[in-house]
Amino acid sequence: MNTALPVIAAANTNRHYERIGGREAIQQLVNAFYRAMDSRPDAATVRAMHEPDLSHTRAVLVSYLSEWMGGPREYSAARGSPMLRRRHQPFDIDASARDAWMACMRQALAECGVEPGLRAELDAAFTKIADFIRNTEHAGQRREHPGRPMEVAPHATPLTHASSPDPLTSPNRSTP
To answer: 7-29 b/e with 16+ CB inside 10 Å = b?
Structure first.
């Protein structure tokens, strides 16, 4: 008698990749994002944190966002775990830098015609990440690492940027 349980592939609960239009749409979003960064006076400090030639940076962001939104796992395969806060540690990222980054992303989302519901979901998720990466307080003081979500609020179920909650694992969780 065979008592082995069948293997069932887990469904990807993050459908942002399909909803935004896949890799091509993400490439357009990244291009619009860096156009905004190049043209917005409030983003000059953030733009200065990047190399003059953005070719490599664009490719990395397309790869990261594609995976983050539920697409192919190219970023992790090539670069390992994102460790976003650690990767941005060499730069002073304060509230104004976070806000400028978000302004560029919001402009790009609008320019690319991302539908309002998806735009709101992505905005909420980007806001969490942008604030998590912030490592500098007022007057240049270093900001302590906020910790992983379960360390910060062990009683709360951490929200993700998934398009819809997974009813099998989080029946009472609301979608961001």
So the answer is: eeeeeebbebbebbbebebbbbb
